[in-house]
Request: fold
Amino acid sequence: MKSLETARLLLRPWQDGDAPVLYRWASDLEVGPRAGWPVHTSVENSLEIIHGPLGQPETYALVYKQTGEPVGSVGLFPPEPPLDLPAGAVQLELGYWVARPYWGQGLAPEAGRGMIRRAFEDLGCAVVHCSHADFNHQSRRVIEKLGFTYRLTRDAVDGDGNPRPTCCYVLTRENWERQH
Ligand SMILES: CC(C)(COP(=O)(O)OP(=O)(O)OC[C@H]1O[C@@H](n2cnc3c(N)ncnc32)[C@H](O)[C@@H]1OP(=O)(O)O)[C@@H](O)C(=O)NCCC(=O)NCCS
Reply:
C-alpha cells in the first residue's frame, strides 16, 4: 500500500498511535451507525479496529494536512452484490466516513476521487461500486458528486436485524474516463 495525496488530505495506512483520535471520532453515534458499523466503545476497542477492519489492504486514514490528525477513513473492499463480469475483471467498492466536525467541507468527495483514481489507474479496476443506506442522504450526495450511476436497492439488515434497504451504484472505467 502506498500513501496518496489530495489537496487537503494525506491518505495513509492507519497506525496504532491513531487509536485515541479514532476513538474521539468513532464514538460519535452519528457516524458509525450511518455507515453500518457500531460505535467504538474505548480507545482499546479503536486499537482492535485498527488491527482489524481498518488494517485491511486499501484502507486509509484521511489525515487533514493542516493539523496532521486523522479526520476520517476511506477504503476499497469487495463489492456487495458484485456485477457478473468476465473472470479476472477487478471490481471494488468504495467506503468512507468523516468526523462530524469536518462534515460539509467536501472532504469525502475529495478522498473518494483520489481512491477512484487509484482503483482505475493502479489497481486495474473495471468497475467501482458504492452504496448507502436509503436514509443516508449525506452519503447519497457524495455518491452523486463522484459521478456514480444508480444500479439497484437491495434488502439488507443492520447489526440488530432491522431492515436497512441499501442503494447500490456503479462507476465504470468508461464513464470515469469520459468524466475526465
Ligand atoms: C457521508 C459523509 C462521509 C459525507 O462527508 P462530507 O465530507 O461531509 O461530504 P460533503 O461535504 O460532500 O457533504 C455531503 C452532504 O452532507 C450534508 N451535510 C453537509 N454538512 C452537514 C452537516 N454539518 N450536518 C448534516 N449534513 C451535512 C449535505 O447534504 C451535503 O451535501 P451538499 O454538499 O449537496 O450540501 C459524512 O456525512 C459521514 O461521515 N457520515 C457518517 C458516516 C457515513 O454515512 N458514511 C458513508 C456510509 S455509506
In short: The pocket of coenzyme A is lined by residues 31, 34-35, 96-98, 103-109, 132, 136, 138-139, 141-142, 145 (CB under 6 Å). The longest strand covers residues 69-77. The chain has one domain: 4-179. The first helix runs from residue 19 to 26.
